[in-house]
Amino acid sequence: MLLDLHEIDWSAISAIVSAVMAFLTYWIIRQNRDFKKAILVFEIKIDQYDFYIEITNVGESIATNLTLKLGNELHRIASGYSSVLISRIEQGKFTIKPHESKSLKIEGATVTVRLSEKHQSRDRETIYNYLEELGDTPIKIIGSYKTLGKRVKIDESFSINDFRITNH
Predict the structure, then answer these.
(1) Residue 157 has pLDDT above 70, yes or no
(2) 0.70 cut: is pTM over it?
(3) Where are the alpha helices (DSSP H) in the chain?
(4) b/e map of 1-23 (b: 16 or more CB within 10 Å)?
(5) What dihedral do alpha carbons 131, 135, 86, 95 form, nearest 10°?
(6) What is the helix (H) or strand (E) element at residue 69, kind and residue range?
(7) 163, 41, 157: which is closest to 98 by C-alpha?
(8) CA distance 28 to 31
C-alpha cells in the first residue's frame, strides 16, 4: 500500500505538532526561570577564633527579605557576646545581590583567648574547651527569602567542624 500525500489530513497533523511545540516552549521557559532565581549557599568561615556564617547568592536574581533563625543548640551554648550577635542576625532582614556574599559573625572569641593568655592556663583551657563544644554543636538554620516574586524556605543543618581543616 502506497501512501498518497493528497489523502493525509495535514491540518490534524499540524495541530498536533503545534500543541507539542507549545508544551515544549512552556517547559523551556519554566526551566529557564528556575535557573535565574536566587540560590543561597551557607558556609562557616573561621578567622582564628571568630566564626562567621557566610551566605552567598550563587543565583542570577536578588534575594530579598532574608530572615534566619538559628537552632536551639547554638543558643544553648552561646557566650554573652555570641548571644548578642545571634539575636542581631535573627532580628534582621537581609538582601543579597547576585554573586555577592554576606558574612554574619556568630562567635567572637579572639579577644577572650588573647585575654586568657595573660591569665592562668586553666582559663585558657576552659575557653578552648568551649570553642571545641561550639565546633561540634549542630547549627540549624531555618528561614526564608523572596526571589522572582516567590518565597523560598530555608532548612539547613551543619556544624562548624564540618568546615574545619584538621591535620588528622
Answers:
(1) yes
(2) no
(3) 10-36, 72-77, 80-91, 110-117, 121-136
(4) eeeeeeeeeeeeeeeeeeeeeee
(5) 140
(6) strand 63-70
(7) 41
(8) 5
Q: At what angle do helices 110-117 and 121-136 cross, to 10 degrees?
A: 160
- Enter the DSSP assignment of 35: H
Instruction: Quote the CA–CA distance of 38 and 61 in Å, as a whole number.
Output: 5
Q: Residue 100's pLDDT is what?
A: 95
| 3-class DSSP assignment, residue 66 | strand
**How far is Cα 60 from Cα 53, in angstroms, rounded to an integer?**
21
Phi and psi torsions of 80, nearest 5°: -55, -50
pLDDT in tens, 99-151: 999 998 887 655 454 444 545 455 667 666 766 777 777 788 899 999 988 89
117-129 b/e with 16+ CB inside 10 Å = b?
eeeeeeebeebee
